[in-house]
Specification:
The protein is α+β, with helices and mostly antiparallel strands. The chain contains eleven helices and 30 strands.
């Protein structure tokens, strides 16, 4: 048995060895298996500024792993008879705009509510500027449109969890941070875990977030706001999180049986399709084993929390560098620990040698869906809104001809099917399909596209002014929001569609711009479509008009 344990540790050491550096941020890892702690180590630096190494006791942000804690907090109020998660969110948040089908709190919790995401809107209009307290709800209340009708599909949104947290505060009469401390962290003995609303608070033993610099070296990461809540506020350690995961898959000390049935019931969409996301948790399979998990990211770090209940395998990986992928690492851990229990890999990457006809740019004028399929080291990769910096590999789908897929994210698997004539592409997710047209291989020149496009545009929903200019041979868009600004390069893809990418490489606000022109070719307005915001309208204004 000692030999087996030593062999396992040696394999895990080899997996994480590349992160044991004194010149880069790193990670902390905790692994429990078979009822015992098997691995507990820190790698790389907690602070490059102060030359402090990561240890198993280092505290880090867990990002969106916070979400299922927020859901459980809401369910405790349900148990107390104080909250109805199937009621319209507007019952508790009358500031929100009325919709034809108002989203319920449950739909905000499982990402099927259709509301735009305040964080995406702020990053789009002000980059990484600090969002003041109270501004998120005000931004959500400004939205005259949603992304889609409630219950139609899923689209991951931090805005729903910010709103859920405010509801928890209003119903409980406590701050969100205090409620979690009293009702979750305290009873569980998670003594090193807190909800920290911003990164200017000094916390003992906490790692610094690091982002790769635009040219070289590292820069400090920072949450872009003063009041992060249920969308990603928790700071913890691997010991506390392993303790929590054991509770998650075992006998519950917090929450009754009915609460946990709700927590683990996957979303069902209006069309009857069942998703993979429940209340802040995802349930998927990997090589034949069932996993319960959630990941989280912040500006300069990430976290993966995963358990394989059938085999009693619990994994926590927390990083403080934006170049480390804890989701991929957690699957490598499963490969190592559960090697004899796993099925063979069922799919393989699609190569550009076998499928060259897929390469190209595709766009759906009506819905704004946009993607590019590119070659990266001989394999097909998808660029889809937020994936500009890190395109994801496409895989073949067994028994489904001319179909490729992405790994499952919070919205479920994304399937692509190329039409036999190669001119169109079907994109399917959450049981919803849309057809994208292939754009011409030769894009218009920026100078030609600038005619009738250069000018000033305002968006009441975003509370922002966009100024489009021709700078040399390139088109640029400068967006001024209420609390900051953001700057983008515009790349024409067709006569009425452009892709936009930020000057700041750490920004997540990538997407497509759809133009609406008048009979003279002048742009009257445009709509922006990003990862978590769709159909955002900007309308042309006179030069002397201010937003």
């Amino acid at each position: 048995m000692q030999h087996i344990a030593s062999s396992l540790a040696a394999k895990l050491d080899a997996l994480f060895a590349p992160y044991q550096r004194s010149d880069a941020p790193g990670l902390v890892v905790g692994i429990a298996y078979g009822g015992a702690l098997r691995y507990r180590r820190g790698f790389g630096m907690a602070s490059l500024e102060h030359d402090v190494a990561n240890t198993p006791c280092t505290r880090m942000r867990i990002g969106s792993v916070t979400k299922h804690f927020a859901c459980l907090a809401a369910m405790l109020l349900v148990e107390a008879g104080k909250l109805d998660i199937d009621a319209p969110a507007r019952r508790y948040l009358p500031e929100l705009p009325a919709r034809d089908n108002d989203p319920t709190l449950r739909q905000l919790m499982n990402h099927s509510g259709g509301e735009r995401c305040f964080l995406d809107l702020f990053m789009l209009t002000q980059g990484l500027g600090m969002v003041p307290a109270g501004a998120p709800l005000a931004m959500q209340a400004r939205q005259s449109e949603g992304n889609f009708p409630a219950g139609e599909r899923a689209m991951y949104t931090n805005g729903g969890y910010q709103m859920l947290s405010i509801v928890i505060e209003r119903i409980s009469g406590m701050s969100f941070e205090a409620f979690l401390a009293e009702h979750l962290f305290g009873p569980m003995g998670m003594i090193n875990t807190i909800a920290a609303p911003h990164d200017l608070q000094i916390l003992p033993g906490m790692a610094t977030l690091h982002v790769r610099g635009a040219t070289s070296g590292w820069e400090r990461g920072l949450l872009p706001g003063w009041r992060c809540l249920g969308e990603g506020a928790i700071v913890s350690t691997i010991d506390d999180m392993l303790h929590w995961i054991a509770h998650l898959r075992g006998k519950k000390r917090i929450g009754c049986a009915a609460t946990w049935r709700e927590m683990l019931t996957p979303v069902r969409f209006n069309n009857g399709e069942v998703g993979i996301y429940s209340l802040g948790l995802m349930q998927t399979t990997y090589r034949g084993v069932s996993m319960l998990h959630h990941s989280g990211g912040s500006i300069g770090g990430a976290c993966q929390m995963l358990t394989v209940p059938e085999h009693g395998l619990d994994i926590v990986i927390m990083t403080n560098g934006d170049t480390i992928n804890p989701i991929a690492l957690s699957k490598h851990v499963i490969d190592i620990v559960l090697e004899v229990h796993l099925s063979p890999v069922e799919s393989r990457p699609a190569t550009s040698f076998e499928y060259p006809a897929w390469l190209g740019t595709y766009h759906a004028r009506e819905t704004g869906a946009y993607c590019e399929i590119v070659d990266r080291d001989g394999a097909l990769h998808l660029i889809h809104h937020n994936l500009v910096i890190h395109p994801l590999p496409l895989k073949l789908v067994p028994n489904r001809p001319r179909t490729l897929a992405l790994d499952e994210g919070p919205e479920g698997a994304l399937y692509l099917k190329l039409h036999s004539d190669g001119t169109r592409l079907d994109m399917t997710q959450c049981g919803q399909s849309q057809t994208l047209d292939r754009l011409a291989n030769t894009a218009p020149y920026a100078a030609d596209t600038a005619n009738g496009l250069v000018g000033r545009y305002v968006s009441p929903d975003a509370d922002a002014l966009a100024v489009i200019k021709l700078e040399g041979d390139a088109l640029a868009m400068h967006v001024q929001g209420k609390h900051g600004s953001a700057h983008y390069r515009l790349d024409p893809k067709s006569n009425d569609m452009l892709a936009f990418t930020p000057h700041d490489p750490s920004s997540m606000a990538y997407g497509a711009m759809r133009l609406s022109r008048d009979g003279f070719g002048n742009t009257k307005c445009f709509r922006l479509d990003t990862w978590r915001t769709r159909h955002l309208l900007f309308t042309r204004v006179d030069d002397d008009t201010t937003p």
